[in-house]
Amino acid sequence: MFSQLAQKLLGTSPVKTKPLIDSERFVLLKTQLRKELFQPDEESKAFFPEETALVKRIRTETAALNRNNMTRTHAYLAYYRRNPEIHWALLAHMVSRNGGYHMTDLKSSSMTQLLSQAERRKFFLFLERANSAIFADAFPQLLLYEHSKHKELRLRKYFPIFHISRFMAPIWESFIQEPHSPLLTTALIINEQSMIQERVLKRTRHGEILLRLDFQLQEFLGFTNVIFPFVNKQDGIRSLTGLTVERFADPKRRIETGKFLYELLFEHPDVFHGVGEFTNAVPHTGSRMDYWESIYTSDPLANNDKVYSPSLQDAWADHPFFPPPPIDWYTNESFIGHLQDSPLIKKVDLTKKVLENVKHLKAINELKSLF
Asked: In whole angstroms, how far apart are CA 174 and each of 29, 55, 171, 268?
């Protein structure tokens, strides 16, 4: 399945895959996940005072860090530095950086003529809703695991309190018994994209916005570019790798894209070390100036030919988080197969393509200003 998708998206020859876990472990996990569909919730079980206090601390910390894209993005990286075995946290940091870039693109100088203010706000609210919903679902899981490293916790007892899908219970239990970062990362990718599909896209008008992003904006905005800056060149332009995808409205495509990005980030040493150097040296601001200082500026008064790319705090005010409906997406076993394999794909250099997109967008915006 992944080979066909990657071939379509990247225009390459069929992509090879490798088993994510051995067949015996996959069969055991598949059996556990099937049983999970019929497990009763543990919500009715009483909590001791110290357990109640832990729930309160996690809720308070998650809410404080879920203030905006910048706070979320920084939180993922800080967590990864404390818990490097949780690969998903670094992947989430990089994907969240891209989410911030897309948010500030809406207020860049290349967008002045392309969308009305009302349309820009709609697209921002969609991006903010997805970004914040994923954080609200995933970060309590990460904090629970972190606490379990210091004191034994029965994680599944806490999951109903935080509306975490039952799909993740056997995954975390397996990880605690025998850590396997690729399996956990893949499961979290499946969980978060499926959660977004059921809780946000299907039950709000944001699903319509995603379709518009696919068909109206992908041509000139690059909203479907997910980039990883990884080599700092002397001319102020970092080399970029990543993925350009289409039809992001399909959750299976988003899951396979996440698997590709994980493979790219952790299985290519030059990308992993380059991203590490970039994230250590450059705090996330939301401005694309973070990685291309010679192309972008975050100063609106700068008198030069650079593209104005504001910081997030200059582009958008904080937006209150409204919890999505607490629906468990895991109602059948159709997504279990995504845990079976992972892609073997070569790194793609997107630097030239993204530079061309920047010039293309600037030209379209200037042309439209004439009419």
From this structure: 8, 22, 5, 26
- CA pair distance 331, 312, nearest whole angstrom: 37
Rounded alpha-carbon distances, angstroms, from residue 309 to 56, 70, 125, 299? 38, 15, 18, 8
Mean per-residue pLDDT pooled into runs of 10, the chain (371 residues): 46 73 93 89 74 97 98 98 98 97 93 84 91 97 97 94 96 96 98 94 68 53 79 80 79 91 96 96 97 94 90 96 91 92 89 87 75 61
Angle at the Cα of 338 from the Cα atoms of 337 and 339, rounded to 5 degrees: 85
Q: State the DSSP code for 305.
A: S
Give the number of residues written for the chain: 371
pLDDT at 1: 43
- How far is residue 307 from each of residues 9, 296, 340, measured CA to CA in Å? 28, 5, 43
Cα Rg of the chain, angstroms:
21
Task: With residue 10 as reference, give the H or E element that holds it.
Answer: helix 2-10
Give the per-residue pLDDT at 213. Answer: 54
DSSP string, 340-366: SEEEE----B-HHHHHHHHHHHHHHHH
The SS3 call for residue 51 is helix
Summary count for the chain: helices (H), strands (E): 15, 6
**Structural element, H or E, at residue 88:** helix 87-105
For the chain, how far is it from start to end, CA to CA, in angstroms?
A: 45
Q: What is the pLDDT of residue 97?
A: 98
Count the neighbouring beta carbons within 10 Å of the beta carbon of residue 247.
Answer: 16
| 239 bridge partner residues | 231
| Phi and psi at residue 323, to the nearest 5° | -60, 135
Kindly write down the DSSP assignment for every residue of 108-142, as one continuous string.
SGGGTTTS-HHHHHHHHHHHHHHHHHHHHHHHHHH
Position 333: which residue type?
Answer: E
Q: Which pLDDT score, from 0 to 100, does residue 222 have?
A: 57
What is the per-residue pLDDT for 112? 82
Q: Among 93, 183, 174, 84, which residue's Cα sits nearest to residue 138?
A: 93
